[in-house]
């Protein structure tokens, strides 16, 4: 017994070291489910424990999981994903001695379609459960909670959000402030030589966007669930401390340095790490022979700050992981057919860096002197403008034979943005997917071993919007499509 436990814990540690290669986004940036069987049923698990990865949804479910372990790996492709910029950006007419010139009236995204690269990601998982006695269990579950990745290599989306390197900026005759051009050659050329009353608007190109442009967020969770059966043993409660590790990198965001309270901590600072913890509570009840119910709540995961990106995220680099609530039921309609339903609520609106609006006039953030708290990195700094998300999941499990189980499911989540005026920042996180269609199968090869497969398709979804405070009249569309295949091995001692 001790040898089995040591081997299982060793496998958990190896898996923990391998997992931070994930980058997924289905329900916002949370995975649509954890565990291959659950993924095959659109993520239902709150009242239908099927393997040790149930901890990620409802730790109380471990009470009815046998002594053993589960190993899984998913190949995930969030592609295509990106942004389409329309040609309706604002322009202004400039009268000169050489004629009238039409110039952009402010920052804009060069019209066209921007597809993110890096299309395939490997996502491993592991879970182990040990029965302490007839009424209690303890285990460990290691999994990638979620993440987000974008990488625009062919062209920088934000290339028009700064003036030319060393271009002079000063007052116009009408009192407004903007970049200086020389029109004597018959076309506008940026003025870079010193002019009285002007300043260098982009010293040596420090605000010029580079490629690749994008972000990479990865999250590793380790939960240690303890469960206790109550009364007649048909009900159980569970609690799990949750330990989390995040890795983050941003590149190509140089124009936003001028809008930050900490310009050197916005972009191109390499990988930064964040660590934290929270708690996960759950209840599971086999109410009748046919009906099971479940509920769980995972607190906010309180994380240390991303110090290297203290000028990008609100409150000096704060990026806590949102709380999550689940309700579920599972009904055995026939001896070999089970129907399960989950409701999930993800509290994205409680994490400032995710929820804070970016529909704000950032002009004051680009001026010299103390900057307002809503500037990037400030105590109430702008964020992605996300709202909390509701997810509805429906799954079916059909035992075709004593050894073969077939599964399927569908889920739907509400929109991720609070309004259609906050599209631009989400070029970095186009979490537009709404529907998830899933299939899978499990085959019991021996008395102790089962192998499973899951397939998930998330149809392409778009979000049409604007960002008036950053790109004036220009509109555009975020889009994403996803596919995932998962393989799992379950072993019971």
From TrEMBL:
Gene3D superfamilies: Outer membrane protein transport protein (OMPP1/FadL/TodX)
The entry's keywords: Cell outer membrane, Membrane, Signal, Transmembrane, Transmembrane beta strand
Entry membrane topology: Multi-pass membrane protein
Domain of life: Bacteria
Compartment annotation: Cell outer membrane
InterPro entries recorded: OMPP1/FadL/TodX (IPR005017)
One Pfam entry name: Toluene_X
Extent of the signal sequence: 1-25
Family per record: Belongs to the OmpP1/FadL family.
Protein name per UniProt: Long-chain fatty acid transport protein
Organism in which the protein naturally occurs: Allochromatium tepidum
């Amino acid at each position: 017994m001790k040898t089995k436990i040591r081997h299982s814990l060793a496998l958990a540690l190896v898996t923990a070291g391998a997992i931070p290669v994930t980058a997924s986004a289905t329900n916002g940036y949370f995975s649509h489910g954890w565990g291959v069987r659950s993924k095959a049923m659109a993520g239902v698990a709150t009242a239908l424990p099927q393997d040790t990865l149930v901890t990620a949804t409802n730790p109380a479910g471990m009470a009815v999981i046998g002594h053993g372990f589960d190993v899984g790996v998913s190949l995930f492709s969030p592609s295509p994903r990106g942004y389409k910029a329309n040609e309706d950006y604002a322009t202004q007419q400039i009268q000169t001695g050489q004629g009238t010139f039409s110039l952009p009236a402010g920052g804009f995204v060069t019209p066209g379609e921007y597809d993110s690269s890096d299309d395939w990601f490997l996502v491993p998982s592991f879970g182990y459960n040990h029965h302490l006695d007839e009424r209690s269990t303890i285990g460990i579950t290691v999994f990638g909670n979620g993440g987000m990745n974008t990488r625009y290599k062919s062209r920088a989306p934000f290339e028009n959000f700064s003036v030319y390197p060393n271009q002079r900026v000063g007052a116009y005759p009408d009192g407004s402030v903007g970049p200086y051009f020389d029109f004597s050659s018959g076309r506008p050329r940026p003025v870079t030589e010193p002019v009285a009353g002007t300043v260098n608007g982009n010293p040596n190109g420090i605000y010029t966007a580079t490629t690749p442009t994008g972000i990479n967020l990865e999250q590793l969770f380790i939960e240690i669930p303890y469960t206790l059966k109550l009364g007649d043993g048909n009900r159980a409660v569970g609690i799990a401390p949750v330990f989390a590790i995040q890795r983050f990198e941003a590149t190509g965001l140089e124009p936003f340095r001028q809008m930050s309270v900490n310009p050197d901590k916005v972009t191109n600072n390499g990988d930064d790490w964040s660590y934290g913890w929270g708690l996960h509570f759950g209840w599971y009840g086999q109410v009748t022979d046919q009906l099971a119910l479940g509920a769980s709540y995972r607190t906010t995961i309180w994380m240390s700050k991303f110090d290297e990106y203290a000028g990008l995220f609100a409150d000096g680099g704060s990026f806590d992981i949102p709380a999550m609530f689940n309700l579920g039921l599972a009904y055995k309609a026939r001896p070999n057919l089970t129907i399960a339903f989950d409701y999930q609520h993800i509290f994205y609106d409680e994490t400032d860096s995710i929820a804070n609006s970016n529909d704000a006039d950032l002009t004051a953030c680009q001026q010299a002197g103390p900057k307002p708290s809503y500037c990037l990195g400030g105590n109430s700094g702008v964020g992605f403008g996300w709202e909390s998300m509701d997810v509805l999941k429906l799954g079916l499990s059909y035992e075709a034979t004593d050894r073969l189980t077939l599964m399927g499911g569908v889920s739907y989540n509400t929109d991720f943005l609070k309004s259609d005026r906050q599209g631009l920042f989400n070029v970095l996180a186009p979490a537009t997917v709404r529907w998830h269609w899933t299939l899978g199968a499990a085959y019991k090869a021996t008395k102790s071993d089962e192998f499973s497969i899951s397939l998930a398709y998330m149809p392409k979804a778009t979000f049409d919007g604007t960002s008036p405070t950053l790109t004036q009249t220009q509109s555009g569309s975020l889009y994403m499509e996803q596919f995932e295949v998962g393989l799992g091995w379950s072993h019971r001692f």
